[in-house]
Structures are given as C-alpha cells and as structure tokens.
Design goal:
The protein is an alpha+beta fold. The chain is built from five helices and eight strands; from the N terminus they run αααββββαββββα. An eight-stranded antiparallel beta sheet has the order 1-2-3-4-8-7-6-5. A hairpin with a 6-residue loop joins strand 7 and strand 8. Helix 2 crosses helix 4. It is globular, with a radius of gyration of 16 Å.
Length: 156
C-alpha cells in the first residue's frame, strides 16, 4: 500500500527541468537521430504533436506553460545521398547552466567528445556522426540540437 502511494506521488510530481532535459536528450533525441523513429519515450515524457509538415514534426510538453518545445527533422537522403536527422529541444524553463549540467556528464559517459568553441554561450560534443550543441542567446531559451549526418559518420 505504501509503495503504491509513493509511486503515485512520484508519477504526479512535476519533473525537474534538468531531469526533463536529460531524459529528452538521452532517451529520445540520441536514439531518434540514430534512426529510431519510435515516439513512445517522448510521449511518456508528456509531449504532444503540435504540427507536422513534410519532414518536420513539432511537439510541445503538455504542461500549462509548454516549457519545452521539440522539433524533429528527417531527410532520408533520396536527393543527395546524405542522411540527416535532427532533434532540437528548446528548454524555455531552464537556463544555459542548468541544461549544461543536465547533459554534459551523460554525454561524456556515452563517449561524446567536447569540442572547443569560442564564447561561453555555446558548447558542442560529437561522436560518430552525431553532434550535440547547446546554445543560448541573450534573453532567449537554451536550445539543445542533436543531429546526425551520414557524411560526418563516414568521416569519423
């Protein structure tokens, strides 16, 4: 009985912004850009589709403020042979440092290498054709872009 109450309390408690960011990037975006089109993980995290046009799908978190926006893009390479996939997360409720703290260690543990970038408002990690970038412009939301390029993967 107590276990059921604890489980219910955890399920109903709002997820912390750093945990949500980490879960979206690690559990959905990375598998998505590597070719996994299953949306179960993102639906579990409470995202719903807000628009679809061609190869672009927009989703938003289902909280009242829509604190997270997600854009998925896929190009299967029929035109030029280059496969491109991108998953872009706009964390409207979390700052640059919170997002960085949420994803830096899990990315490094997954074998991503940090690249040196001029400026303190942009970070990049890469591994085998997958690039994860974090940026934030003054007064804007932090944005994490996870992308895959088959040309980059061939050169890795």
């Amino acid at each position: 009985m107590i276990a059921a109450l604890i489980a219910a309390a955890l399920a109903s408690a709002p997820m912390q912004s750093d945990q949500m960011t980490r879960d979206v990037v690690m559990d959905f975006c990375l598998p998505y850009v590597n070719g996994d089109s299953d949306r179960a993980a993102i639906e579990f995290l409470g995202f719903t589709v807000t628009g679809e046009e061609g190869a672009v799908t927009d989703l938003a978190s289902s909280d009242d403020r829509q604190a997270y926006l997600l854009r998925l893009t896929a190009d299967d390479g029929e035109d030029d042979g280059e496969v491109l996939r991108a998953c872009e997360l706009q964390a409207r409720g979390a700052g640059f440092d919170a997002v960085k703290g949420a994803i830096q260690r899990p990315l490094e543990q997954a074998g991503f290498t940090a690249e040196t970038v001029a400026g303190s408002n942009r970070l990049i990690w890469s591994r085998q054709g997958v690039t994860v970038s974090l940026r934030q412009s003054q007064g804007r939301a932090a944005v994490v872009r996870v992308s895959y390029s088959s040309l980059d993967a061939e050169g890795a």
